[in-house]
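[Automated response] Your request has been received and processed.

Submitted sequence:
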Amino acid sequence: MLQSRNFRLMLFVLIFLLGAASRIIHIDDLSLWVDEGYAYYHSNNPDLILSLSRDTHPPLYFATFRLWQEVAGRSELSLRYFSYLPSMLSMALITLLAAEVVRARGGNPRQSLVPLLAALFMALADSENFLSQEARHYTWLVFWVTGSMWAFLRWLRTGERRALYIWVICTVAVSYTHYLGTLTGVVQGLYALLFLRGRQRLQAIGALVVSALLLSPWLLLVGRQQIGHDGYQWSQSLSLELLRDIRRKWFGDMWPLTMGLALLGSVTLVYGRRIQARLRPLGPHLLLLMWALIPFLLVVILNEFIPVLQPRRLTTLTPPLVLLVAFGVANFRPPARAFLIAVLVVYGVTTVDYDRPKPPWRELTAQVAPLVQPDDLALIDIAGGDFQMLYYFEQMLPPQTRIVSLKNWRTWETDTYYTGLPELVEQYDTVWFMYWNSSDDSGPRILQKAGFVETAQFRQPHAIAVNVFIDLIIYRYDRPPAEPLTTYENGMQLLSAAYNANSGAVSLLWAVDEPLAEDYTVSAFLLDSSGRLVAQHDGYPAMNTRPTSTWPPATPVYDWHILETPDGTPLPAGTYQLAIKLYRQQDGAFIIATTEAGTEWYTVGTVEIGQ
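Generated structure:
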């Protein structure tokens, strides 16, 4: 039945759908993390070459990623979908590569389960499932190295010029996607030296030399700058803990089984009176082991000189390991083979072995986005990098808001930072500051020196382990005015007030000279041209989190209210009056705190709501 083309096609479609579902489900559930923000930032830099010269990556992914965003937009889904697509293509491409390896080993792909098993295990591979949900280049790297190895083997078998060209194109694409991907070319070159002869060997080496030469213009342009970049600081030293992490990510928690199957996949079992392990032809049987082991060992060695070792940079392990496990399973006969397939499928569908905590930057930004005014300043200073918050601030804050990464400013324009930041903050009265884990305290110091006072904190818990949380914090800083807008009879001073027409948020800044014994309710509301109440919110300050009886004297307190209409519908375009009223309840009665002018509320002024 497996020899039926239609039946095999049906199985592949089912496998493809499984892989598609496992990759697309929850793809935009988690916030972008710093590396994804980095990809977004660099791909949108007007001077892409200058931007990448400040980093450690070649340009192909970032250039194509920019074009993709122009077409598909910049939502989290569209950014990550650009990684989802090559992962889906790799499932199809791995079947072609598996068929070539089967032929090279002396088998018939139409009579072999290996191509289908390779597609199945690629669909289930945790590394591919995880990385296909990240806006990064790693699934493209897997796609290109898989295409390179497929074209290489096809050219060896057929001698087709088209296959040779595809091999060179894919190999060049590999090197322009990630430098460590070129180690696949090293494997191919070593294979050519060991197992090819005559003209074919010369042509293979020549193709690899041409591929290397095509990378040289880029290296000559930015190579010196990239070698000295501090992006290498995130690499890890070789340790037992790191090896266990790599083992778990690529072999899972049942690694004795999957690793054993991979080793078994390096030979062909021949069943007769006794089972024999065949290694002939030697080259094709060793190729997958070489492809898995040599790049890994070279990265470990290179890491002693240039820190490059990180698990995700070893993503080119995925295709050879998938193929080795597929060959290992195919070496078994029924019913043992069916049992193994069932076990691996159940484990792959129900277990996640490749993961990474991602801080909830989106949820944190969503807290403050309705409150930010277009003329506010937004600053970012995060220890690991500001890129992800640049993305969320750009996507969620008002378009006119000035957004500045202090870390990038200090890193790339050090000469202007310490004079430029004080000059910048002098232009604003309100600053929103995402300041987290940074070892540089220049931002808070400069704000304090400029007369700013911290008036609020917005926190979002981030789980770094089971039942272990740390808070991400956005701080609001205000520069209090010399005189309040008004003072109520209870001593509460309204220092400033602003209305955000897009979100319906009212931002208020309060202060008291003496502690208050009672808790007052703040009523913020809009009146139309006829004096009719059209939108309102009543509550203790800061959405009931800063009751007035807790306010320290002479310390500004930020308060906000989201106004709502009685029926929940948006307000029609027009001109409205914003007013603020204070009251407290006593014995069932409402006690109003009048303004210094003796009125029940203070009219802040006119607000315009457009279409």
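Summary generated for your ticket: The CA atoms of residues 509 and 558 lie 5 Å apart. The chain has three domains: 75-220+236-350, 361-478, 486-609.
If you did not submit this request, please reply to this message.
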